[in-house]
Amino acid sequence: MKNVRIFVADDHKIFKQGLISLIESKPELHLDGEASDGETALRLILEQCPDVAILDISMPMLNGIELTRRLKQRQLSCKVLILSMHYDVRVVDRALSAGADGYIVKDAAFEELTLGINCVLKKKCFLNSQIQQELDTYRANSPEQQLTEREKEIVRLIANGYANKEIGERLHISHKTVDAHRVKIMRKLNLHKSVELARYAFDEKLDI
Hints:
10 helices
């Protein structure tokens, strides 16, 4: 591994500077750019296409999970490592479902960053052993894992307050198709009323 181009996006100035200093201390790594918000990061990453983008999960304008989703939709070769204060495996699962190639908790970032970069460049998912074990247990027992990606997308939009017609417009599907998805979602989650689905969606909404 050498001359690996790294992009860093984090709105915490002190932490970001620490990451940059770490990257600049490694002769095999090259800082390709930086940003403090998700929209700027998206624009610069699309322009520069670094080898690895290191993204804070909590950023203004566009959070790390949504930024990852948009980058992966463009089918870039850029690998994505998510940085987060969250140990919650639900957050980890959603980051990976969005297309993240690895997930590093900020408390361990300076110890695991180089290892994580090496791992994702080899097309392997990077998680430390504790998170991997907790994620496996969560996925084995979570009813949400029964949902398709489209159904999860609809749940996210419900959590953000969108009505069926608005969801249909955003996803380019009819409101009847949205209704059908809602019925399937409620059956899979063993919910019986629309208000229960709305409450579930709100409760599952990530604070990021």
